[in-house]
Write a structure and sequence with these properties.
By secondary structure, the protein is mainly alpha-helical. Helices cover 64% and strands 4% of the residues. Strand 1 and strand 2 form a beta hairpin.
Length: 222
Amino acid sequence: MSEDRSLDIAGIGKLAEAVPDQVWTSVVDTACITFKQLISPLTAITSGTGRLIEAKFDRLVDAEKVIASQTISHAVDKASHSSRKRKNEPKPSIILKVIEDSSSEVDTTLRELWTNLIANEFVDGSVHPELVRILSRLSAVDAQRLIEIAQKTEQKLTIKLALEILNLLNSKIPLSEDEPTTFIDAHLSNLNLIKKSDGIWKLTVTGRAFLEAVSDPSIEAT
């Protein structure tokens, strides 16, 4: 049991180890019940894939189950406050991949981006599988650099991106303009999120789509 608690499930690191066994068991049990209640409408209509999602969740260690449950719960809440009209049903394959890739994420910033991504999938089934792969390959500093480039070069950067994501990242991981970012820029370029034009790094079509996918759908763009 103590091995599971070593994973930071609430942004408090090792403090989780102090949770009594009985309380921890209750937290995990609640997380399992919550997850299966939230996923049940999807699993009811997706047959084999739905059972695969449940099986994936059941194989997670306890701390990962808590993270996965929190991610899905927060995503459902954000999706429920979005004014966008549903075009497509959420894709079980996307949900399964998000559970796989995000359940062991201990960085609170990246966990928020994972939550936003799955919330957008719940809203209208709009998330492309490639965007899930991209997020799984980013660090919080990578994400902060991407937003920094977007803020400097995108005239149509939305308020929800500028205030929600940029503020979150900047307050957590300040990045000085004097700090070397050559590898970060190269990494973002390799992911096709940015490209250099006239000597300036700018977002690609993929970069814009990615930022939209990790934006909170409950915050209206202006």
